Amino acid sequence: MINRERLIQRFIQLAGISSGSGQEGNLRDFLKQEYKHRGLDVYEDETGQRLNGNCGNLMIKIPGDSRFPALLLGAHMDTVQPCENIKPVIGEDGIIRSEGNTILSSDDKAGIAAIMEACDVMREKDLPHPPLEILFTVSEEQGLEGSKYFDYSLLQAGYGYVLDGGGDPGTIIVQSPCQNEIEYIVHGKAAHAGINPEDGINAIQVAAQAMSAMPCGRIDEETTCNFGLIEGGQARNIVASTCRIKGEARSLKREKLDELTSRLTDKFKAITKECGAVPEVNVVFLYPEISMDLNERVVRVAIEAAESIGLQPITEKTGGGSDASIITGHGIRCANLGTGMSNVHTTDEYIKIKDLENDARLVLAIIQQAARE
Ligand SMILES: [Zn+2]
To answer: Catalytic pick from 140, 355, 357, 359?
Structure first.
């Protein structure tokens, strides 16, 4: 039922519209135009101003059979760099790549193209469907920033899907971690390194002691921790007065995240104080965990939809967050779906045409399944 040529052309068109994070305005204009042709309004929120970008999150509502619960479909509009003048090339092997000096932006324009194509077919064939709510977010690549600012009270949907996962079409991510961003700062005391070092407290040395006493890396099967950045000191001949360490902790379980974060923080504070320095701690909760039951509607509908079009459903867990984490945190059960995009965030990014087609087929099958049960 999918119009293969139209889908490919639209994907190429979308990829050609540069939309780095915060600069999604041209893509918004294109999408507004497209939906206007279909007689649909595109609502844009104020997130653009709040994030100093030129575009907000977009929401499109497509009325449907209200006997069935409303369904949310989402993808993000922004991409990482380099994304200027992307020229997708279709290989004889049925794979779409960039020319090699940019990303391809199948992350996440494959998702946008699949949603648009599925909705077009749904309209042309007049297929039964539930009320649909489409959400295209901004600044996902900046740490899910766009979806964090969206006003979810505008939505009726109780469940939905984001098309933004690695893995083949048919992959349903049912478990993903919550994450804390952690910043530790040691405030020591500056002194001249040669004249009176004994009057100083070296923040770098204190930080090193604290670091070596804290766990890092894999904590257990469900929990990880990393310190990825350290900076401090002013000059070679000054006892370092400050040192800043940035890190993160993730876990599939909230209790474990909380426990690990307080264990790290207690250790950091204790050692810093022991050394006569002053600790500063900044912990930011970035996004909540997702843990889905295989029998709940959002998973069931996706599995049945995948099977109905001959795709192998694969339920998986992942180590990262997505817009689905934020959406689920707002009470809308949202699964991230694999789209087949590969080598993302590199200039070797590619997607198979077959996968692009299967993405659109799967979205269409999900829409139909959602109007069946
Ligand atoms: Zn993405």
So the answer is: 140
Domain boundary, last residue among 287, 303, 333: 287
Low-confidence ranges of the chain (pLDDT < 50): none
**Smallest Cα–Cα separation from 181: which of 142, 126, 133, 132?**
142
pLDDT tens digits for range 239-254: 999 999 999 999 999 9
For residue 107, the CA-to-ligand 1 centroid distance in Å is 5
Same domain, 65 and 162: yes
Task: Give yes or no: residues 18 and 163 share one domain.
Answer: yes
Q: From ligand 1's centre to the CA of 14, what distance in Å?
A: 15
- Let me know whether 202 and 281 are in one domain: yes
Among the candidates 254, 287, 320, a domain finishes at 287
Same domain, 150 and 188: no
Residues flanking ion ligand 1, Cβ below 5 Å? 107-108, 164
Q: What is the pLDDT of residues 19-39, one digit of tens each?
A: 999 999 999 999 999 999 999
* Residue 44 confidence (pLDDT): 98
Whole-number Å distance between alpha carbons of 27 and 276: 54
Token match 């077009």: residue?
120
**Model pLDDT for residues 280-305, shown as the tens digit of each residue:** 999 999 999 999 999 999 999 999 99
Element (H, E) at 56: none
Residue 85 Cα to ligand 1 midpoint, Å, equals 19
**For residues 263 and 240, what is the distance between their CA atoms, to the nearest angstrom?**
26
Shared domain check, 161 and 191: no
SS3 189: strand
pLDDT of residue 62: 98
Distance 373 CA to ligand 1 centre (A): 30
The Å distance, Cα 333 to ligand 1 centre, comes to: 19
359 is annotated as an active-site residue: no
Instruction: Specify the 3-state DSSP secondary structure of 252.
Output: coil
How much is the pLDDT for 373?
77
Q: Is 24 a catalytic residue?
A: no
